[in-house]
Specification:
This protein has about 130 residues and is mainly alpha-helical. The chain contains three helices and three strands. Bound molecules: iron/sulfur cluster.
Length: about 130
């Protein structure tokens, strides 16, 4: 490879790298939903939270305070006691480290409380 070809290749590499950076930066600006878990708090009005009165929530027995659920309903599953079942250790839950709320695949587009529970709880596999 002569000097001219080397410069041409380097220039193309820079263009490619800057394109990737531009896409990355523009993605960051448009992916606010992905950043929402960090901001998902009880007072954040930009985030939609699951309400216990939602139809799906009612059918699943969703309760924001898992400890308020009767032990006969929040029964032991496998080796996990009912009292140890929360959204935070459910396989359907994802959240940023330290966030009070997170996403549940059963409630697309909304956030559930980490300390909540519903009948579909299933132990998260590590
Ligand atoms: S499926 Fe799991 S994460 Fe979703 S509401 Fe029920 S217990 Fe919480």
């Amino acid at each position: 490879m002569n000097r001219r070809e080397l410069l041409k290749t380097s220039a193309l590499g820079l263009v490619g790298a800057s394109s990737v950076l531009a896409v990355s930066c523009s993605k960051k600006e448009t992916t606010t939903a992905d950043e929402a878990p960090k901001a998902a708090t009880e007072t954040n009005t930009d985030v939609t939270y699951v309400s216990e009165s939602d139809n799906v929530a009612q059918s699943l027995g969703y309760k924001e305070d898992a400890s308020s659920v009767d032990a006969s309903v929040r029964a032991d599953k496998g080796e996990t006691k009912g009292s140890e079942q929360f959204c935070t250790n459910c396989r359907f839950y994802t959240a940023e480290e330290g966030a009070d709320y997170g996403k549940c695949t059963l409630f697309p587009g909304k956030y559930v409380k980490g300390q909540a529970w519903c009948k579909s709880w299933s132990l998260k596999q590590s």
